[in-house]
Amino acid sequence: MYKLVFFVPESHLESVKAAVFAAGAGAIGNYDQCCWQVAGVGQFRPLAGSTPFIGQVQQLEKVTEYRVEMVCDDSLIKTAVTALRAAHPYEEPAIDVWQLAEPGL
Question: pLDDT 10s per residue in the chain (105 long)?
Fold first, then answer.
């Protein structure tokens, strides 16, 4: 089992979650579309050669984003990350994938 964590601007929160859920992430027992999310402020500065969705090259940008966390089965994690990247508006989305310990350890 993995935990998938990503950061997404509010404008694309629901569509990115929907894509990742459709890939099978966010299932816990008899429940699906399970996640935890919280708003925060991300910052970045696009460098030369980038094509930023938000902001201008060489200018520091701060934007309200959501941190979204969900679990994902081992067999679906690659598909879920591929779906996340396809649905996300950023050319370099921030994504964390953590392998979880087995319950009872």
Answer: 999 999 999 999 999 999 999 999 999 999 999 999 999 999 999 999 999 999 999 999 999 999 999 999 999 999 999 999 999 999 999 999 999 998 776
pTM, to two decimals:
0.91
The range of the structural domain enclosing residue 16 comes to: 2-99
Contact assessment for residue 1 and residue 77, using Cβ atoms and an 8 Å cutoff: no
Distance between CA atoms of residues 35 and 10, nearest Å: 15
Asked, for residue 56, whether it belongs to a domain, the answer is: yes
Which CATH number do you get for residue 92?
3.30.70.120
